[in-house]
């Protein structure tokens, strides 16, 4: 039996990714393994928001899987689960435009999410 209580995490998302989450077509969120995400676990809630707006949407974390880099993450999770509207190579370029090499070196997290009704 676990002693941990599910937590709520607040994370910003760009509009294009937020819309995919809301549509239910983006089921894997990609993040760098920052210290503040080290304890993210199944059962936690993420409140995604678009920075500078009041728009937000809550999801439940179903699974968190660590990968050494973004390429391994996309290969392991399947690009269509991360962003069904772009190719693997486009996704890799987009993710690396957000996170420079020194951030990617921290490790990559695949966070499987499910919309909360």
TrEMBL record:
Source taxon at top rank: Bacteria
Query: Domain named ASCH: which ranges?
Result: 11-117
Output the Gene3D superfamilies linked to this UniProt entry: Hypothetical protein
Concerning Pfam families, the annotation shows: ASCH (PF04266)
Protein's UniProt name: ASCH domain-containing protein
> In which organism is this protein found?
Streptomyces sp. 900129855
């Amino acid at each position: 039996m676990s002693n941990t209580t599910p937590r709520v995490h607040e994370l910003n998302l760009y509009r294009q990714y937020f819309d995919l989450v809301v549509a239910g077509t983006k089921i894997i969120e990609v993040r760098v393994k920052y210290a503040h995400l080290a304890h993210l676990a199944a059962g936690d809630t993420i409140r995604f928001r678009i920075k500078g707006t009041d728009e937000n949407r809550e999801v439940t974390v179903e699974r968190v899987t660590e990968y050494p880099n973004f390429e391994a993450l996309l290969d392991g999770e399947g690009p269509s689960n991360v962003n069904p509207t772009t190719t693997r190579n486009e996704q890799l370029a987009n993710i690396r435009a957000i996170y420079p090499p020194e951030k990617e070196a921290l490790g990559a997290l695949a966070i499987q999410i499910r919309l909360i009704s």
